[in-house]
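Retro notes (design track)

What went well: tokenization of the new backbones is finally stable.
What didn't: we kept losing track of which sequence belonged to which structure.
Fix going forward: every design gets posted as structure first, then sequence, in one message. First example under the new rule, 339 residues:
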């Protein structure tokens, strides 16, 4: 039998060496723009969106990027983007009026497909289950979360009323467009179409009509709580990250592991990500990446332990829907690739 201390050391060493094999290469930047929306269609097709009405696109795997500013939206903030191919994408302009735009010609022209001028409107994130069915979620109006759905690839949207009641000071972060995720109707929870997480003074996980789980994550302030959720490839688990974006190097209570099929649904990692994290993504069933303003972490054991691989600041990370490429985006218009 191997000595347990030696075995633990060997596992730790292998994790560190594995993490050190990753590098983050910045491909392009625009100092005037903050990017929070990112959609990677395949290894060649990348779309991103952000402040100053900015959308950026690459069709050659990040060798070159086309930066564009949507006419009439120069002062708007596009916090999330969903792309379907090199020509078709949907973006959300977050607030007053909240608007959704769609292009079918690679961003040369954008059509406003949805507008809501209700006072207090603020769209936070968007997710698609496939090329047709999608969700957009926003901060509460009269303490009810705002939710709209589409069944035609974002061409039309239908608001859903009274879907999630929220507490005072409980809302959604528009930090990376990943606080709502589609959930396939399979596995242990067949009747649920999406999972969403809240932050602020209260932080919870919502799904269908029956999941209302309090998250063991730092909360209580407007700057605290859950920011991002990723669903495992087999739909049985999830990982939630967040923290306090005003104290972005503090790692306590910034990550939650979710097991949908276990009676003890929620647990915390052994080793947390190293600071506030605004986005998390599965690379495989056991491998994940998470990023935030204080750095980037990798997990090789389904989120139980995290290793810091970079102190570079990023808001969002995404893996190709069809492929293996992983890209990151953030402040200063940085777009990078994980190698």
């Amino acid at each position: 039998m191997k000595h347990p201390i030696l075995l633990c050391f060997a596992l730790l060493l292998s994790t560190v060496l594995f993490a050190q094999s990753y590098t983050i290469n910045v491909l392009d930047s625009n100092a005037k723009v903050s990017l929070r929306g990112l959609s990677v269609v395949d290894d060649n097709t990348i779309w991103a969106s952000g402040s100053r009405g900015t959308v950026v696109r690459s069709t050659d795997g990040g060798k070159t990027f086309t930066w564009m500013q949507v006419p009439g939206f120069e002062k708007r903030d596009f916090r999330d983007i969903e792309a379907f191919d090199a020509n078709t994408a949907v973006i959300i302009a977050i607030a007053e009026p909240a608007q959704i735009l769609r292009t079918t010609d690679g961003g040369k022209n954008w059509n406003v497909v949805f507008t809501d001028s209700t006072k207090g409107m603020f769209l936070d994130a968007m997710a698609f289950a496939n090329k047709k069915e999608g969700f957009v979620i926003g901060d509460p109006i009269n303490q009810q979360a705002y939710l709209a759905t589409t069944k035609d690839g974002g061409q039309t949207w239908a608001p859903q009323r009274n879907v999630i009641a929220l507490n005072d000071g409980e809302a959604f972060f528009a930090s990376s467009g990943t606080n709502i995720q589609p959930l396939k109707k399979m596995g242990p929870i067949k009747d649920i179409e999406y999972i969403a997480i809240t932050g602020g003074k209260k932080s919870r996980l919502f799904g269908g009509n029956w999941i209302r789980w309090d998250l063991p994550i730092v909360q209580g302030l407007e700057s605290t709580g859950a920011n991002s959720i990723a669903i495992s490839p087999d739909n049985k688990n999830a990982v939630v990250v967040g923290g306090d974006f005003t104290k972005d190097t503090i790692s306590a209570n910034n990550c939650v592991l979710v097991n949908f099929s276990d009676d003890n649904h929620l647990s915390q990692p052994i080793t947390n990500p190293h600071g506030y994290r605004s986005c998390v993504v599965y690379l495989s069933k056991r491998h994940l990446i998470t990023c935030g303003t204080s750095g980037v972490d990798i997990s090789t054991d389904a989120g139980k332990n995290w290793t810091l691989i970079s102190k570079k600041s990023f808001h969002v990370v995404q893996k190709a829907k069809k492929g293996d490429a992983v890209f990151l985006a953030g402040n200063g218009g940085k777009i990078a690739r994980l190698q």
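Added context from the reviewer: The radius of gyration is 19 Å.
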